[in-house]
Amino acid sequence: MRICLGIEGSANKIGVGIVREDGTVLSNPRRTYTPPTGQGFLPRETALHHQQWALTLVQEALDQAGLGPASISLIAYTKGPGMGGPLVSCAVVARMLSQLWRVPLQPVNHCVGHIEMGRQITGASNPVVLYVSGGNTQVIAYARQRYRIFGETIDAAVGNVLDRLARALSLSNYPAPGYNIEQEAKKGTTLLELPYGVKGMDVSLSGLLSAAEALARMRVDAPREAAAKPSTASSLAGHHAPPPPPP
User: Fold this and answer.
1) What pLDDT was estimated at residue 244?
2) What are the extents of the domains in the chain?
3) CATH number of 158-237
4) Which of 70, 147, 171, 229 has the fewest Cβ atoms within 10 angstroms?
5) Helix pair 206-221, 158-168: axis angle to 10 deg
6) Do domains 3-122 and 158-237 have the same CATH topology?
7) Cβ atoms 177, 171 nearer than 8 A
8) 63 — phi, psi (to 5°)?
9) How confident is the model at residue 232 (pLDDT cuts 50, 70, 90)?
10) Per-residue b/e over 88-116, b at no fewer than 16 CB within 10 Å?
């Protein structure tokens, strides 16, 4: 049975997975670049992080799977979409391994990889997919030999909104901005209305982000005595968005 080693590093996480032809995951070690609080992950620093860990993760993946290079039938890597520097760093490693081990090299579309991974894990045969990874917010289904987008964000993606909101609220990037926003939301006591727009099957989140960042700036700039009031961070993290207008 053929075995594939895949390298994914399109954003701040780099992972190396080894998977059998039947879909069995033999190993999947990962490392995440975590920038300082208040900062996002920049392409240069993220690429350097991936370069530092790539070969270590390849060896970890082989060790955890109990395999050697001779057992690998195919090398796969994320071709895009994603951040240019990190993608190139992983592609260089994948190409090097392909040449050293004399096995084929297979580029993979990042978005398709997410969708097909979900289908493999859930066993779904013909799903309608809500794809909300990183810079994507889309409702997708597969028909007539292609993936079709039924609705999507027309500006900011959900993942980008969460990352920027965490920075505006000075929340830690560890273990993940979205997780830390959720923990703050559990402490919230006040519902804050934030705008968003829906047009047909599409959604606009830029207004929500702008309003949230404005509220966060008010919290940062507030006088010291206002610190005794209920936490804006917690309430903002657990905000209440008004319902969209009727179609």
Assistant:
1) 56
2) 3-122, 158-237
3) 3.30.420.40
4) 70
5) 10
6) yes
7) yes
8) -65, -45
9) low
10) bbbbebbeebbeebebeeeebebbebbbe
